[in-house]
Amino acid sequence: MKEIWKNIPGYEGLYQISSKKRIRNIKTGKCKTSNISKVSLSKNGKSKSTTIKYLYKISFRTFNNKNVYIRPFNLNNEE
Fold first, then answer.
1. Which of the pair, 10 or 66, is modelled with greater confidence?
2. The pTM is what?
3. How confident is the model over 40-61, as a mean pLDDT?
4. Of 42-46, 47-51, 62-66, 74-78, minimum mean pLDDT range
5. Do 14 and 28 meet the contact criterion of CB atoms below 8 Å apart?
6. What are the start-end ranges of the E strands in 1-79?
7. How far apart, in whole angstroms, are the C-alpha atoms of residue 76 and residue 26?
8. Is 90 exceeded by the pLDDT of residue 74?
9. What angle do CA 45, 23, 39 make, to 5 degrees?
């Protein structure tokens, strides 16, 4: 499976998360591996700690305008 990178909402242009749950700092190009459960992201001098699972969920899942989760159709059953 090809690794897909998406911007993390609220951190566009700073951080991205991949389909393999790796976090990438766009400025430095460094990646944090998926074998860690929490990550700390910083923006405008303020740092926020969150789980990689949550970042993956908000970056790769889609919601409708009523905040109801819409599961994308996937023939391969891959997440």
1. 10
2. 0.72
3. 90
4. 74-78
5. no
6. 5-7, 15-18, 23-25, 31-32, 38-43, 46-51, 62-63, 69-70
7. 30
8. no
9. 55
Q: Look up residue 51 and give its amino acid.
A: T
Task: With beta carbons less than 8 A apart as the criterion, state whether 41 and 14 touch.
Answer: yes
Token look-up 């909402």 returns 9
Tokens of 13: 């242009």
Backbone Cα Rg of the chain: 13
Whether 47 contacts 40, CB under 8 Å:
yes
CB atoms within 10 A of CB 25: 15
Q: Which two tokens stand for residue 23?
A: 């976090």
Give me the count of residues in the chain: 79
User: What pLDDT does residue 62 have?
Assistant: 63
At position 15, the amino acid (one-letter code) is Y
Q: Return d(Cα 21, Cα 17) in angstroms, integer.
A: 6
The residue behind tokens 């303020």 is: 46
